[in-house]
Amino acid sequence: MSNKKEDIREEQQDQPVKDQIEDAIDEAIDEVEGEKENEDNNDDSPEFTEEEKLKEDLQKEKDKFLRLFAEFENYKRRTSKERLELFKTANQEVMTAMLPVLDDFDRALKEIGKSGDKNLVQGVELIHNKFKETLNSKGLEAMNIKEGDAFDSEIHEAITQIPAPKDKLKGKIVDVVERGYKLGDRIIRYPKVVTGK
Q1: Could you read off the pLDDT of 33-56 as tens digits, one per residue?
Q2: What pLDDT score was predicted for residue 3?
Q3: Cα(126)–Cα(135) distance, rounded to whole angstroms?
Q4: The sheet that has 181-183: what strands, in order across it?
Q5: In the predicted model, what is the mean pLDDT of residues 1-25?
Q6: Of the candidates 181, 177, 171, which has an alpha carbon nearest to the alpha carbon of residue 159?
Q7: What CA–CA distances, in Å, run from 126 to 115, 131, 189?
Q8: Which value, in Å, is the radius of gyration of the alpha carbons in the chain?
C-alpha cells in the first residue's frame, strides 16, 4: 500500500497540476463508489427497511385515527349531555315567571276556602290543579319542606330565626314562608324558611 502511494506521488510530481487534480477527484469518486457498494452488499434486505417504514407509517396513521375517533366520541357525548341539560332547563325562565302566579293561586285557594261557598272553592281548585299539573308535566316539582325538617343551607334559604316554640325544633325549620321548586334536578327557587334557635 505504501508503495502504491509512493508511485502516485512520483507520478504527481511529473504531471501538471490540472492532471493531478483530476486524478485526485477520480480517486475520491472511486473510494465513495466502493464504500457505497460495500454498504449495498452488507444490506441484504433493502425491501425490509422499506417495509418497516411502511409499517411504522401505518401505525402512526392508526394512532392518529384512534385519537381522532376518541375525540369525536367525547365530543358527541358532551354535546348530547349539554343538549339534554338544555331541554331540561329550557323552560326555566317561563317557570320562574309562573311561580308567583302559582303562589297567588295557593293564597287565593286558602282565602276562598274560608268563605264557605263550596261551588266557588271547587271551581278554583279545578283551575289550580290544572295549572299545577301543566307545570308538573313540564318538569316543575315542588320541594316538600315541612315544620321540623333539618335546616340545610345548601337547599334552604333562612329569612329569619326565632325562639323555638318547642325544644325539638331548635336548629330545625319552624315555618315555610315560601315554597321552593325544582326544574329537573336544578333548584330554580330556594324555599324561604324560618328556623328555631
Answers
A1: 666 565 555 555 455 788 888 888
A2: 54
A3: 14
A4: 140-142, 181-183, 186-189
A5: 60
A6: 177
A7: 17, 9, 25
A8: 45
